[in-house]
Predict the 3D structure of the following.
Amino acid sequence: MFAQSNRWFWHGVFIAVLLGMALLIQSSSSHINYNWNWQVVKPYLINTDPLPVFASEEGTISANATGDLVLRTDAGDEILNLSAYPELSVGEGDLVFEGEQLASQPNWQMGPLLKGLVVTIEISIYSLILAIILGLIFGLMRVSSNVALRNLAITYVEIIRGTPLLVQIFIFYFFIGTVLDLDRFTAGVIALAVFSGAYVAEITRGGIQSIPKGQMEAARSVGMTYIQAMRYVILPQAFKRVLPPLAGQFINLIKDSSLVSVIAITDLTKAGREVVAGSFAPFEVWFTVALLYLVLTSSLSWGVQRLEKRLAASD
Amino acid sequence: MTRDYQGNDMIIAKNVEKIYPNGCHALKKVSATVRRGEVVVIVGPSGSGKSTFLRTLNQLETINGGSISIDGTDMYDKKTDINQLREEVGMVFQGFNLFPHMDALGNVMLAPIKVAKRNKADVERQAMELLTKVGLQQRMANYPSNLSGGQQQRVAIARALAMKPNIMLFDEPTSALDPEMVGEVLDVMKSLAADGMTMVVVTHEMGFAREVADRVLFMEDGQLLVDETPEAFFDNPSNPRLQQFLSMIL
Ligand SMILES: Nc1ncnc2c1ncn2[C@@H]1O[C@H](COP(=O)(O)OP(=O)(O)O)[C@@H](O)[C@H]1O
Ligand SMILES: [Mg+2]
């Protein structure tokens, strides 16, 4: 009973703190005379401006045999049926010139922010897949008994972890990208993948080393090769254990992808910067950008949690 | 592989030396021969090298001197495929070492399918037979976490048998078990012995040694000191170190 009411009290505290913070943001923005105008953001997300329909040749608007309004050329050819468009800017009998607007068409288009979001998702997915491959290879090299392989893996991990991602992106874009003639998108994806791959390699190594030695011995004792033992016995178990840190790393990857905007890839962050310049609503735009990132990262962690539950069910 | 070897010596170890990378000299000129169908029990104090010796017999440990041949094949011959040799030598561990991400049937079926590349339906039939043989027909779909220690060890025995080995190695198979489960595992081992399996067993179960073993070996401090029939070993020990050891445990 006591514990119950205590719990509700702390829930109350939690909500009160959130409200207090909202109030703080509100009051500090009014302090600088900021007018919140969330409406401004919408066209940058989804553009619903109707598309104009133009006359491709000069002619006359008239009714055809079935009663639809059509555009006819002077020669009498019917070139456009207007019945499909709900909003007409011309009427029967009008003469129209080439290029004149005849009607408008309802339209849904991704605004710059959504386009940026798509680019961010693309970059994240490609680099995530590459990072998994790199991380698996280097993680396995890291636990190998071969000194050359092991040292190569250590060198890779140390170099990548010891230098800032921003610098790596510049190196990939300006040096490696130029040498190998990569476009900026590819350079960005590879930079992110190589960066995350180092962390995935460490996570992989930790996962493999957390599996008791007896598992490898049991697998080898029934005649499996090292590779078979890894594939069928060690890695499936390690995978389950590394899922939580791996998910954290992938969330970092999504967030770090914002840095590729420095090499002029129009991802969500770059789109945000461009939109802010023209919208006069910097606060709303940046809050929206943050929310979109949050949606991405939280759906990823939700997905991983479900996967974890599914895997846990088997033991 | 010399699968057509018809000689009677299944294991010949000659002057085996093992020095661990940390300098520990675990085996000192250990020589022993195990004949087809024989059950050999190894006893000795903790740290005397029993596990190490057993593990050299399927090359979980490499040796630093001497030679080992299994069923007529020199283990350290350049032409010997160690993975193929290991298929012939089943091993059962003190800690079971079952694959926790697979159920009992999966544990037994994995190697025959992935290593021996046998037909899945055949393997499944054989795996069910083996699990029935060790008394686990009701537990085939259980994951290791849902099996008792004794049941896990019996699955581990079935898993080793699934590769149709000619030799079975047991490293203290009952030491990690609650006392009431020791019997069920020893019974399975006894029936294996009765079927004529060649077995090398490290154990502290002196009753098993006396009843089932053809020969009992005594190791101490990396040396093989005694190699006798159970009668001579237990009733008439001549080696003073063995007398001392027996007086402590019996
Ligand atoms: N992996 C290892 N590295 C170094 N020393 C080891 C290792 N395994 C065992 N030893 C040492 O080798 C000796 C024999 O060990 P072991 O074969 O496990 O004995 P037993 O099984 O008879 O108890 C012991 O002194 C032990 O400390
Ligand atoms: Mg031991």
About this structure: Chain B has a mean pLDDT of 94. The longest helix of chain B spans residues 179-194. Chain B touches chain A through 28 residues (CB under 8 Å).
